[in-house]
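Here's what a typical entry looks like (Transporter family-2 protein):
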Amino acid sequence: MRTAPGTVAPGATGAPPPAPDARPAPRWLLTLPLMLGSGALIALQSQVNGALTLRLGTGVRASALAALVSFGSGLLVLSLLALLHRPTGRGVAQLGRDVHRRRLPLWLVLGGLGGAFFVASQGLAAPTLGITFFILCFVAGQAVMALVVDHRGWGPNGVTALSRSRLAGALLAVLAVAVSGAGLLSAVPVTAALLGLAALPLLAGAVNSAQQGVNGRLAARVGPWPTTWNNFWVGTLGLVVFLGLTLLRPGDLTGLPSEPWLYLGGLCGIGFIWASTLTVRIHGVLVVGVFSVAGQVLTAALLALLTGSGRPGPATWVAVLVSLAGAAVVGLAQRRRSRRVG
């Protein structure tokens, strides 16, 4: 049997073990609803964690505790999965051994800090900026950094050169968020302090895109479930530190509420982190991010319609169409690239 130059034939002495992602990748078309669904889970988690924050108390301290409850409950579920599902358990154990023996660079396992930083920036900046302006800045930072990550080849699927289609899709994602909150954005007074504070969500968005690239690389080494567990483990540790720091600021905690649905944020987080670690290896960081934004905008509109919290106006549905258009533009561009490469 002939082998390519520089490779070792299977079964030969010293041959490396097969990579965890050697199994066939999911079909391209089937991953599209998975990416939209991950955005929907982000929107649902935002609703759940927002309600939990209001029930826990006031100030940044309540926001930090809500995030810690979300991450901690997700970590508990994933740890039970690792105990009951032997392949996941072996993957987590192997991850721990590789980190201990320094077979993995430290930066490759710190992706979970991106989620902790997002929560910290939300607690610090969202009350002043308003949630709409905060999300707009976050998506802008996310889109710009996604272009950079893919262009530099820092993600798991190699270099994807900047193109007009990719730039247009990123701009459409930002525009969709701006259109959906146009009325609220017009009421935000623009000051030097506000623009300075806007740097936090911009940086959080950039960190989020870098996190997806890191997660994709780690998943290629150990698989998506151990990568998801690692995200929750590292994120939980980061949030413990953040919660401790918030004790130095004003705020009150009133105790844990009894409604079970307020603790579903961790399950939502498991879903979208697992989905993003799987799909980013196929589509790249930008495509996953733009589809996620489309899923968030669409789900937010449907939640408002179904819960009766406010009838979505024309601007909301225009935002939905714009976000879906952005997803279609970057998705088709990536599909054409994949066919040329393949």
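The first helix runs from residue 28 to 56.

More examples are in the samples folder.
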